[in-house]
């Protein structure tokens, strides 16, 4: 098992890519702490535990600094360590530049950028004390190339790549790695409503001619969170079927 006896926090772990990460990490021996605002986290946690894994669910917003810091302290008190932080929680509120409201800008920045900052700042002292840690943050290929109608989202995803590079410099001497992972178009509950003809257009733009499954992205997280990647830090691993070439 590649994560045997590790303790991993997965934000946004209730469904989609986060669920795939939570399930895979549990299969690889980690105790998985799922954070999400969606009640689906209850079912995801139950499924993991019913299948012999170890998981617990906390209904929590990554933007609630006081609750995040208290919950991290409680987790550390319970398990004695926090080995892995997967900053996966994120939202979209897409509009073109001329139509995007300040509220839509602020909401996406608050969750996707500030939330990552809050969670990482809460966990880092415990990793520093242990002289060990793996921080992996969800970027996106649109953080590398931009995307029509996603001024706010693209900005946050470019931002977390830069933050990861900065944390590599600040935290590396304590045995902590910090990386970003940039998925491409991935089939999740959020994409189920896309019309079939539009889906085919999207797929044709991807060199591999298909969308990713959540597990395709989860394996990337597994690598960066494992000891196999002990000398990998400050990178953005792109898993997008070649569209960002």
UniProtKB/TrEMBL annotation:
Signal peptide range in chain numbering = none
Q: Does the keyword Oxidoreductase apply?
A: yes
Keyword Coiled coil (UniProt): no
InterPro entries per the record?
Answer: KR_dom, NAD(P)-bd_dom_sf, SDR, SDR_fam
Question: SMART domains per the record?
Answer: PKS_KR
This protein's UniProt keywords: Oxidoreductase
Q: Which organism is it from?
A: Spongiivirga citrea
Cite the EC number: 1.1.1.47
Q: Which family does it belong to?
A: Belongs to the short-chain dehydrogenases/reductases (SDR) family.
Name the record gives this protein: Glucose 1-dehydrogenase
Domain (Ketoreductase) spans 6-184
Against NCBIfam families, the record matches this protein to: PRK07231.1, PRK12826.1-2
Lineage here is: Bacteria, Pseudomonadati, Bacteroidota, Flavobacteriia, Flavobacteriales
- GO MF term set: glucose 1-dehydrogenase [NAD(P)+] activity
The superkingdom of the source organism is Bacteria
């Amino acid at each position: 098992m590649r994560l045997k006896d590790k303790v991993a926090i997965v934000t946004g772990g209730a469904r989609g890519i986060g669920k795939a990460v939570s399930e895979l990490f549990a299969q690889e021996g980690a105790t998985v702490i799922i954070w999400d605002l969606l009640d689906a986290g209850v079912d995801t946690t139950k499924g993991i535990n019913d299948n012999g894994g170890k998981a617990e669910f906390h209904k929590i917003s990554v933007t609630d600094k006081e609750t995040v810091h208290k919950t991290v302290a409680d987790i550390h008190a319970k398990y004695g360590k926090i080995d892995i932080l997967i900053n996966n929680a994120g939202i979209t509120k897409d509009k073109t530049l001329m139509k995007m409201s300040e509220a839509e800008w602020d909401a996406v920045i608050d969750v996707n950028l500030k939330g990552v900052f809050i969670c990482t700042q809460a966990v880092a002292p415990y990793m520093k004390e242990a002289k060990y840690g793996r921080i992996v943050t969800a970027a996106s290929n649109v953080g590398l190339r931009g995307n029509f109608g996603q001024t706010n989202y693209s900005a946050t995803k470019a931002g977390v790549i830069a933050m990861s590079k900065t944390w590599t410099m600040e935290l590396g001497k304590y045995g902590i790695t910090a990386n970003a992972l940039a998925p491409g178009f991935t089939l999740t509950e959020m994409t189920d409503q896309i019309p079939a003809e539009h889906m085919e257009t999207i797929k044709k733009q991807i060199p591999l001619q298909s969308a990713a499954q959540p597990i395709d992205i989860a394996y990337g997280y597994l690598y960066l969170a494992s000891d196999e990647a002990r000398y990998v830090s400050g990178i953005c691993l792109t898993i997008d079927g070649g569209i960002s070439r």
